[in-house]
User: What shape does this take?
Amino acid sequence: MAWALVGPFLCGPLLGFLCLSGLAVEVTVPAEPLSMPMGKTAELSCSYRTSVGDSFALEWSFVQPGKPISTSLPILYFTNDHLYPTGSKADRASLLHNPPTGGVATLKLTDLRPSDTGTYLCNVNNPPDFYTNGLGLINLTVLVPPSHPLCSHSGQTSVGGSAALRCSSSEGAPKPVYNWVRLGSFPTPPPGSMVQDEVSGQLILTNLSLTSSGTYRCVASNQMGSAFCELNLSVTDASEGRVAGTLIGVLLGVLLLSVAAFCLIRFQKERKKEPKETYGGSDLREDATAPGVSDQASVRADSSKGLLEKSPSTSTVTTKSKLSMVV
Assistant: This one.
């Protein structure tokens, strides 16, 4: 059996066509996505057709981008003639008409933020009108200008090498596009030596030369504005590096030799200034007298000297004695 929704009536082939009034909820929302600048107020339009009774209920909920509807988070409820804001948007969410019993359930969201981007669900429930889901979906995009991008580069920045310049903004809706430009005057690069991707923000430089050095600017832009960053690229010549390395090595070698020669000359001068060698008690000399022999020789010499000194005295006494006897 097939049924069809005709305005507020539900009709089906039963003895011809039987139409039951008031057994379906019809919710109407805009078919086009809604875009609003950050900081502004958005009105998410939702209208419905049903007979409002004691069981009428309205719920607004929110789904983050890329997630299923089953993960929706409530924003506010209206039931039993009372409005109940809830969740992280409670202080900024309200109904355009409160109570929403006149067929208008439009949601008003103030001070829009980047985190408000996503899908909003307008759900009207009015038992026994349950033959349709009473659900409307609205996609909202909060427009945000690009944040200040970050510039970086990688690769071999020497003559003949290749380098990749990157640029990225952490914020921006719609997603920014990126454009690299080189500042100042410079020769026209060879065809194919500069390739950029406006979506990823990457610039590829190939077959680098010394003229590739300079300042490069990346501009991130969308319909809300633009921002830029700059990067200085310095291309070096590898052959000049090798010459410089060789020269530094030679200079270091000369310096080391000079230091060694200076130390050697100073050592020789200090050696000449040292006093002549002296013999200690333990040194052996060819002309040295053995211990003990020297002492004996000294004793003998002293004895002989004593005898020589005593001889004249004895002779004198003997002479005097003889003279006395003669007298």
About this structure: The two ends are 200 Å apart (CA to CA). The helical segments are 238-272, 293-326. Residues 83 and 98 are 8 Å apart (CA to CA).
